[in-house]
Write a structure and sequence with these properties.
Radius of gyration: 40 Å
Shape: globular
Strand content: 5-15%
Number of helices: 31
Structural class: alpha+beta
Helix content: 40-55%
Oligomer: single chain
Largest sheet: 9 strands, mixed
Strand order of the largest sheet: 17-18-16-19-15-14-20-13-21
Length: 963
């Protein structure tokens, strides 16, 4: 029996009460259950709303899934780029062992360095290295080499400065696989090579042969411990197949000789250093025993270039731990069990990973701040959307509630119809994001769409059902002017205030560069600041509206009064649109300020490195510049001023009064006070008044010797000020003996960016000369400056601030972070636009009906547009002005905790490092988005007024319409 044929036992017309069963073709009675599916009926009733909600959930889920995948992909690309772009001398994993112990039998020592033994160690050692970076053996190599270059005294070798060349001798595995024979034949062994062998064959690369003037048949004599000579005969000249591969670049000397200067004496002399050639000679693998007899401290080596193609950012921690173990832990013990008890493991890969980790730690929290801001705006827009949908159905739900519908039943049906829309849309957004942004883990991408779907599925039923817990009077108003916040709202707002204060305090105290990075609460500090500002502004808005209404009420015309009255009658729950706009404006201001702070830090680092817009100096800043060069530089295009500086290194400071025999030295800078003071003010490097530096008796006749009894004022660095104290001290310098007194302290100066210094009036020096020119100007002509330096002779260099600034190139991770940040700001702006539209759409029916009603009273179309524009103006101005103030306040509060040094300078020159890179408010990032909000609101209201004006009053006004 089907349910349709069974009557309800509780119905008045049941069979038990004597009722009769009606015919199936008759009208259905009250006992017949309604089987029309709720979800299908609702979706058919409002398909446009369903599609709009699904599209919004789809877009939000896609962005939520794409963000972690984009971050991880760029982090992986940055890691692989850092390892691949690093010098193989730093990135290669190298295991080395000294020659076998002398106590061993000669035959055992010779067998230990032959190719078979070294190859066996290579295979075993490779199995003990970290798997993520050692995946192939193409560029790996091993051999036996002289650890110390050996002086070659053969007469045919070139000697540029009459200094004998120094050569390294090495066997190299699989040489024919990585080189092409250009002349002669491959070196080989004849018989079994031992320590007593007197002659072996070798090969050199084309570059080495060209530099050393070597040909096939050339002979090199190598000294041995026994006093005999080992003859090395060059039989082949080879060319590397891939010179940039780790096989050749892990030790560039194998392929390319180098002209090396002799060690520089301290202090440096004016005479140029002498140079000598150093190169490598390649022996066949089984010729290694012959090197045991040489004086070059032979050693075995095994090189393993890293392969980062499968390395990901989550693998970094484990890889660093493995490298630390190999350098001095259990891993090294296992390697020594294979290569010998004295084997050592060296690599610069851990330094590369440390630099990568520092950059990642600097970028991650900043990107998280942008993501949290954009996510908060998206969440607010989703809440506004479901609030709009629930508000349009308020009368329907009130009717269901009046007819006995339970809150649980109504909420369950709303949850079902929302889940049918939201869940497929969230899954579809995830499925679009996964193939679009591949090479990332899946599970972090699932969290975002799941959160979006959960928010929508729960917010709509709860937001629509909870207001119906108690009966509501029809036509009840919730005006902004008359609203009184409840105690629960006050407690919630105070809770948010406490969280915001804690997040800001935590970010200022710990910063984004602290250990463990920055947690979600700290990253949400700008969002919490915006939330607090929105709550405060909503509470304060009625006060200016009341004052403006009283002022307008006394004026003629009804437009102003009506617009303010309408603005005051807006819903007291208008916090969400204002919050969305404030969060979007704060995120945009914060993002623009971060980018401006990065650019500013790089500009300052370039200025610190050069000291001016251009710098012209001689060798070690000690060679005097010719007068002709100085004159040509000052006459070059783009040069505004050229400050002449005399740099004197190694000036000994007075002995420590405490008598601990501690001696320090500093750099003496002889300058023209006026010109150098202007340079310091222009560059922002240690500005000081020029009068404070002028030497006494400066106006004496030119060429007159300064008085030895005169006390000369000096501007010094903090450490030099500590050494000199506050009384006159005598100094002995290469420019003359002086008695000086500290007249000022500055942390930096333009001429020497990273040294202790004394700045003195050049007129007080006995032996005056110009060794450096610091040029300022809008755009100094680089070609003219370099041409003048070339004409002056050898040894003069030109450095430009613009070239130093251009040296800061973004890595893939930095480029990715910038792209993600821009996308987050754009997404926040898009959601802010949607928030404006939703806010106006929420009150669109009431506005349309109001215009229709007022047009029946004689309101013109122009007055209608003014009315709608002035009605929306208070909220738009509040959002714009509040956004500027909140953005500026958030940046001011969070700036001490934001570290931009790693983000700004990690990919540039390291000659000069900044102590701090302060986050500062960017005026354009503050004002342009705020103006955009006002313009957008005006445009939307104008379109709405024009559209409403085309519809007649009869279309909008109906009898009994509650609007």
């Amino acid at each position: 029996m089907t349910p349709r044929s069974v009557r309800d036992d509780n119905s008045s017309g049941s069979a038990q009460d004597g009722g009769t069963v009606r015919d199936r073709g008759s009208v259905r009675d009250r006992s017949t259950p309604a089987n029309a599916p709720w979800v299908r009926t609702r979706l058919r009733t409002a398909p446009g709303t369903a599609w709009a909600l699904g599209l919004l959930v789809l877009l939000t889920s896609f962005l939520a899934a794409a963000f972690p995948r984009a971050v991880e992909r760029h982090e992986n690309d940055g890691l692989r780029h850092d390892i691949t772009a690093a010098d193989p001398r730093r990135s290669v994993l190298e295991l080395s062992a000294p020659e076998p112990e002398l106590q061993l039998p000669t035959a055992e020592r010779e067998a230990a360095v032959r190719d078979a033994a070294l190859a066996s160690v290579h295979r075993k050692a490779r199995s003990l290295l970290p798997g993520p970076v050692v995946s192939g053996t193409v560029d790996s190599s091993y051999g036996f080499r002289t650890g110390k270059p050996i002086v070659a005294q053969d007469r045919w070798l070139p000697r540029p400065d009459l200094v004998d060349p120094q050569l390294t001798y090495s066997t190299l595995s699989a040489l024919p696989d990585h080189a092409t024979l250009r002349a002669g034949k491959w070196p080989a062994v004849h018989g079994q090579v031992s320590e007593d062998t007197t002659e072996v064959e070798a090969a050199v690369t084309e570059e080495t042969a060209k530099t050393l003037k070597a040909t096939t048949g050339s002979v090199i004599s190598v000294p041995a411990h026994s006093g005999k000579r080992l003859t090395v005969r060059i039989t082949g000249i080879v060319a590397p197949t891939d010179p940039r591969s780790a096989y050749w670049s892990a030790q560039p000397l194998l392929r390319t000789p180098a002209l090396v200067p002799e060690p520089v004496p301290s202090p440096p002399t004016l005479s140029p250093p002498r140079h000598y050639w150093t190169a490598a000679v390649l022996l066949p693998p089984d010729a290694a025993p012959a090197l045991l007899a040489t004086t070059g401290r032979p050693e075995a080596f095994w090189r393993f270039p890293p392969d980062p193609s499968h390395l990901t950012a989550p693998d970094v921690a484990g890889l660093r731990s493995s490298i630390a173990s190999l350098e001095g832990g259990p891993g090294l013990v296992r390697l020594r069990g294979v290569a010998g008890v004295n084997a050592t493991f060296t690599t610069g890969l851990d330094d590369i990973l440390t630099g990568y980790g520092s950059l990642r730690a600097a970028i991650g929290p900043v990107v998280t701040v942008a993501a949290v801001g954009a996510g908060a705006v998206a969440a607010v827009v989703l809440l506004m959307t479901v609030g709009l949908i629930g508000g349009r159905r308020r009368a329907e739900l009130a009717l269901l509630r009046a007819r006995g519908g339970s809150l649980r039943g109504i909420g369950g049906r709303l949850f079902a119809e929302t889940a049918v829309i939201a869940l497929p849309a969230a899954v579809l957004g995830l499925l679009i994001a996964v193939p679009l942004l591949d090479r990332a883990r899946l599970w972090p991408s699932v969290v975002g769409p799941a959160a979006v779907a959960a928010l929508v599925c729960l917010a709509l039923p709860l937001g629509a059902v909870l207001p119906h817990r108690r009966p509501q009077l029809p036509g009840a108003r919730d005006d902004l002017m008359d609203a009184r916040p409840s105690r629960r709202r006050t407690v919630a707002e105070l809770t948010v205030l406490v969280l915001a204060v804690g997040a800001v305090a935590g970010l200022r105290r710990r910063g984004t560069g602290g250990e463990g990075g920055s947690d979600l609460l700290v990253s949400a500090a700008p969002v919490l600041v915006g939330l607090i500002a929105a709550l405060v502004l909503v509470r304060l808005l009625p006060l200016p509206l009341r004052l403006a209404s009283r002022a307008v009420a006394r004026r003629r015309g009804a437009i102003g009064f009506l617009s303010l009255a309408r603005a005051g009658r807006s819903s007291a729950g208008g916090t969400l649109p204002l919050l969305a706009l404030l969060l979007a404006l704060t995120t945009a201001a914060f993002g623009g300020s971060v980018l401006a702070g990065v650019a500013d830090a790089r500009d300052r680092a370039a200025v610190h490195t050069v000291g001016a817009d251009a710098r012209i100096s001689g060798l070690y800043d000690a060679v005097p510049l010719p007068d002709r060069l100085i004159r040509q530089v000052r006459e070059a295009d783009g040069v505004r001023e050229a400050a002449a500086v005399q740099v004197v290194y190694g000036v000994p400071l007075p002995a420590d009064p405490a008598g601990n025999n501690r001696m320090k030295s500093a750099v003496l800078l002889g300058v023209d006070p006026a010109a150098y003071a202007r340079l310091a003010r222009t560059t922002g490097l240690g500005a000081f008044p020029a009068d404070r530096l002028r030497a006494p008796g400066r106006t004496a006749a030119k060429g007159a010797a300064p008085s030895k009894d005169a006390v000369v004022p000096v501007i010094v660095s903090p450490s030099v000020a500590t050494e000199l104290g506050d009384r006159p001290r005598e100094l002995s310098t290469a420019a003359g003996d002086l008695t000086v007194r500290v007249a000022g302290i500055v942390p930096r100066t333009a001429a020497v960016p990273d040294s202790d210094f004394l700045v003195i009036d050049a007129a007080a020096l006995t032996r005056q000369q110009t060794t450096t020119l610091l040029v300022t100007g809008d755009s100094p002509d680089a070609k003219a400056l370099r041409a003048a330096a070339r004409d002056a002779g050898q040894g003069f260099s030109v450095r430009l601030r613009s070239e130093e600034r251009a040296a800061f190139v973004d890595t893939p991770m930095q480029l990715g972070a910038r792209g993600i940040y821009a996308a987050a700001i754009a997404a926040g702006a898009g959601y802010a636009l949607l928030a404006v539209l939703l806010s106006l759409l929420r009150t669109s029916p009431e506005r349309t009906a109001l215009l229709a009603r007022l047009r029946t009273m004689g309101l013109t179309s122009r007055q209608g547009r003014r009315l709608l524009g002035l009605e929306a103006l208070p909220q738009a101005l509040l959002a714009a002005v509040g956004g500027v103030l909140v953005g500026w306040t958030a940046i001011a509060l969070l700036a001490p905790g934001i570290d931009l040094v790693g983000l700004s300078l990690s990919a540039g020159p390291t000659a000069t490092e900044l102590d701090t890179a302060v986050l500062r408010a960017d005026p354009w990032s503050l004002t342009l988005p705020a103006l955009g909000v006002v313009v957008l609101t005006a445009a939307v209201t104008a379109v709405q007024a024009r559209w409403a004006g085309r519809r007649g009053p009869n279309t909008e006004l109906r009898a009994g319409d509650p609007r």
